[in-house]
Write a structure and sequence with these properties.
The chain is an alpha+beta fold and about 400 residues long. The protein is about 50% helix and about 10% strand. The structure holds cytidine-5'-triphosphate (CTP).
């Protein structure tokens, strides 16, 4: 059986990055011969099989990689006469179209190694347009590789712009768009995802709520020299630095200021009420992309509460308790930590404040712990019951917060 390692595993090893999943391409086989060799099929539309021992994915060489409406992946036709080169020719980027045989020899007909060395993301050929998701893939590869010095080749960017103009991006299914956004948020530089999509005229199609922040001025005392769009880029990169790989924090950081596109664009914008105004566009985005509940819930809390967290040190004890209650922190303990990191990214994602500490974080955690130390069971043993327990619990928790503040 002629089997080659392809795609991300070869690319990442050549870049000296830690190896991820290994994908293989198999030449000259049919679904029946794969089954006869003990491989297990994956799904119905994909001629992909799992190795009986390693469980690694082996795809039959194919000449079509179209995404079809309603399909999560490709509609493909396996054909044993398809050569390795024909398969590689239909792939997205030259750096993803390098194959390696079992002896470690590279097969690189489209100059992938040269482009890796030159740090260029270049499409392989005309088949690039077969899958509009590739515009988003380019952007998420930039989120990962821009810190290594990568740029998109001008001819590839021109092609991406034509793909955006064709209107095909709006046919992408939500799950595929969300998956690329998530991979970008898990990468070291999510801002490169946003910038690449903007340059390709695609951000307004796939994330119009995020795109709407560009051109909206920031509050003068923050950084008047950049707009709200640039602020969300800085905040997203800071979140990736503070919580690497945490897409729940990353999504909250990205979307916390969506309301600023809706608050009046005065000469000295103060964006009063943007934290409440942002919830509606955020919910719309989450519904459209079928964002998982964990991501959605934290993003809504961060959107609504980020100003309260910033003001935390000045808040009254009652207001601190309300903030903690609104965060649902008593039921989901990890959430307060993530909220604090998203808010810290907001604060430190401002020019000149990158290395400043964020005292609200440790303080909020400390008060949260003090409030949590009081529980309803303690009060029940004091003979209280029913609605009076709720009131007493509130009072006792406010007292605990007050005591912790003074200690
Ligand atoms: N729309 C797509 C999706 C995938 N591929 C090809 O299939 C390979 C595997 O895809 P995937 O696992 O999504 O990406 P990787 O490149 O492996 O990157 P990573 O694992 O880092 O996500 C890619 O390298 C690329 O050659 C493609 O050409 N077009």
């Amino acid at each position: 059986m002629k089997t080659y390692l392809v795609g991300g595993a070869v690319r990442d090893r050549l870049l000296g990055l830690p190896p991820g999943d290994r994908d293989f391409v198999v030449v000259g086989e049919t679904p029946d011969s794969m089954l006869a060799a003990g491989f297990r099929p994956v799904g119905r539309d994909f001629p992909v099989f799992l190795h009986p021992d390693t469980g690694e994915e082996h795809a039959l060489a194919r000449t079509e990689r179209k995404s079809a409406p309603g399909h999560r992946g490709f509609v493909v036709h396996a054909d044993p006469s398809v050569t390795l080169e024909q398969d590689l020719e239909r792939r997205d980027f030259t750096i993803n179209a390098i194959a390696e045989d079992a002896d470690g020899n590279l097969v690189d007909p489209f100059g992938g190694v040269r482009d890796l060395e030159a740090r260029v993301l270049r499409h392989v050929g005309a088949a690039f347009v077969e899958d509009p998701l590739r515009v988003l893939r380019a952007a998420r590869f930039m989120a990962r590789f821009a810190p290594l010095g990568f740029r998109v080749a001008p001819e590839t960017m021109a092609l991406m712009q034509r793909m955006s103009a064709s209107g095909e991006l709006s046919s992408l299914v939500a799950e595929r768009v969300w998956q690329e956004l998530c991979k970008a948020l898990a990468a070291p530089q999510p801002s490169a995802f946003l910038r690449t999509l903007r340059e390709a005229d695609a951000l307004a199609v796939v994330l119009p709520e995020v795109d709407a922040l560009y051109g909206v001025p920031q509050r003068a005392e923050y950084h008047p020299e950049i707009d709200t769009g640039a602020h969300q880029e800085l905040v997203s990169d800071m979140a990736a630095r503070l919580a690497p790989g945490d897409t729940v924090v990353g999504f909250a950081a990205l979307t916390h200021d969506l309301g600023k596109a809706l608050t009046p664009k005065q000469e000295l914008p103060r964006h009063i009420g943007h934290e409440r105004a942002g919830v509606a566009p955020l919910r719309r985005l989450c519904e459209r992309l079928k964002v998982p509940l964990e991501h959605r819930d934290l993003a809504i809390i961060a959107c609504r509460e980020h100003l309260n967290v910033h003001r935390m040190l000045e808040l009254r004890d009652e207001t601190v308790l309300e903030l903690l209650e609104r965060c649902d922190a008593f039921r989901k303990p990890g959430r307060i930590e993530k909220l604090v990191i998203a808010c810290e990214a907001d604060k430190r994602g401002r020019l000149g404040l990158e290395d400043q500490p964020y005292p609200q974080g440790p303080e909020l955690r400390r008060l949260h712990a003090a409030a949590l130390a009081v529980n309803a069971r303690d009060l029940a043993t004091e003979g209280l019951d029913g609605p009076r327990i709720g009131q007493a619990l509130r009072k006792a928790r406010i007292a605990a917060i007050r005591a912790a503040r003074q200690s």
